[in-house]
Amino acid sequence: MRHSRVINHLGRTSSHRKSMLANMATSLILHKRITTTTAKAKALRTYVEPLLTKSKEDSTHSRRVVFSYLKDKDAVTELFREISPKIAERPGGYTRILKTGNRIGDNADMCILELVDYNEAMLGGGEAAKTKTTRRRRTSRKKEEGSAEAKAPKAVVAEKTEEAKTEGSEADTAAEEK
Question: Does residue 170 sit in helix, strand or coil?
Answer without folding.
Answer: helix
